[in-house]
Amino acid sequence: MEDQEMQLKVRRVSDKFTESMYVLANEPSVALYRLQEHVRRSLPELVQHKTDMQSWEEQSQGAIYTVEYACSAVKSMTNSSMYFKNIDSLLRQAISMKEQISNSQGRRV
């Protein structure tokens, strides 16, 4: 009988001890400490990722600006085709006049 009582008392003590350890392990201050540890370990890596992303964003914005500028230049060139045609016509007229002047001077001599 004493053995059963002793076993019952030991079981109660071990259950209470286990419950106390569980409460201590899950206490909010312990959880906050673990959270702080996690943040301390992962924060430098997160900061590095943020810095890398900002750098990539700046590079991307520069590339986008360059592409937009090139597109606007190409559009401007297509819109200026009539000006090039006008220049071509004027150059042809100038060459024709030059030839006429050269021919008339050659006849005089």
Automatic annotation (TrEMBL):
Organism listed in the record: Seriola lalandi dorsalis
Keyword Membrane found: yes
Family statement: Belongs to the BORCS8 family.
GO CC terms in record: BORC complex; lysosomal membrane
Listed name of the protein: BLOC-1 related complex subunit 8
Location within or outside the cell: Lysosome membrane
Keyword Membrane in record: yes
Pfam entry (one): BORCS8
Taxonomy, superkingdom: Eukaryota
Assigned keywords, A-Z: Lysosome, Membrane
